[in-house]
């Protein structure tokens, strides 16, 4: 099952999930991607907004219910939202081996990354897969910002003078891919159980996470520059 979580109460960028991203509502990018994936048996949009629900239905997605208020706050976790959906589906007699989470704020995805992710899961060794991207800037070139403007190296300080290309590889959560065994999510309550592996998403347009107007401008420019479409 693929779940697209789309809360309606964004404060930094109001209405972002239905806002036109290169001529298409932002949420439609994730919906259309999910609809093209053969491994997804069901696609669900989880939202508390009638406007987002209507935009999803316009893309051929059934939105049978709106997210309860307790799961629509800015403190509600994605894991809690997905667990609620799994419980509702089970009550309807539907069970799923795997759950994929597609955040609409990371609209541009490469299908090949998901092929790699499913290969990890199919191997029966890994329980979860997340998309990761190279960390820029490198954390070994970062500082703690302390009182009086004092700087303290974020890492051990030994590599602060090294060139970026000489530092060990570091990645961060890209936000564009989460795939996990349903039973593991239910027992662990997290998308990051012990047996989690990463799939490298190193194209500039893959690791965007739209939260502000500046994020939006950069994401649209990257998608347009690289010729990506929903």
3D structure, described in words:
- This protein is an alpha/beta fold.
- The strands form three sheets. Strands 4-1-5-9-6-10 form a six-stranded mixed β-sheet, with helices on both faces.
- The chain contains six helices and ten strands, in the order βββαβααβαββββαβα.
- The model has no long low-confidence stretch (mean pLDDT 94).
- The radius of gyration is 19 Å and the shape is globular.
- The protein has a single domain, classed as Spore Coat Polysaccharide Biosynthesis Protein SpsA, Chain A, CATH 3.90.550.10.
Q: Strands of the largest sheet, in order across it?
A: 4-1-5-9-6-10
Task: Quote the CATH topology.
Answer: Spore Coat Polysaccharide Biosynthesis Protein SpsA, Chain A
Question: Share of helix among residues?
Answer: 25-40%
- State the end-to-end distance: 20 Å
> Describe the biggest sheet?
6 strands, mixed
List the helices and strands and how they pair.
Blueprint: E1 2-5, E2 20-21, E3 24-25, H1 26-36, E4 43-46, H2 50-58, H3 78-91, E5 98-101, H4 111-122, E6 128-134, E7 143-145, E8 151-153, E9 171-181, H5 182-188, E10 196-200, H6 213-225
Parallel strand pairs: 1-4, 1-5, 6-10
Antiparallel strand pairs: 2-3, 5-9, 6-9, 7-8
């Amino acid at each position: 099952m693929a779940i697209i979580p789309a809360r309606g109460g964004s404060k930094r960028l109001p209405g972002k999930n239905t806002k036109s991203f290169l001529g298409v509502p932002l949420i439609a990018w994730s919906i259309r991607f999910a609809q093209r994936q053969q491994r997804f048996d069901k696609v669900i949009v989880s939202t508390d907004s009638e406007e987002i629900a209507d935009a999803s239905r316009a893309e051929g997605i059934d939105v049978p219910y709106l997210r309860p208020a307790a799961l629509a706050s800015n403190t509600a976790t994605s894991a809690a939202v997905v667990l609620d959906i799994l419980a509702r589906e089970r009550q309807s007699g539907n069970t799923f081996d795997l759950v994929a989470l597609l955040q609409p704020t990371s609209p541009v995805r490469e299908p090949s990354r998901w092929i790699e992710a499913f290969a990890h899961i199919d191997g029966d060794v890994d329980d979860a897969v997340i998309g990761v991207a190279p960390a820029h800037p490198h954390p070994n070139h970062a500082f703690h910002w302390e009182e009086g403007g004092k700087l303290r190296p974020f890492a051990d300080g030994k590599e602060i003078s090294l060139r970026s290309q000489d530092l060990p590889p570091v990645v961060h959560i890209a936000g564009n891919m989460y795939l996990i065994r349903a039973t593991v999510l239910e027992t662990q309550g997290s998308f990051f159980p012990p047996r989690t592996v990463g799939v490298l998403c190193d194209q500039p347009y893959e690791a965007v996470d739209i939260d502000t107007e500046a994020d939006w401008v950069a994401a649209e420019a990257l998608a347009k520059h690289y010729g990506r479409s929903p």
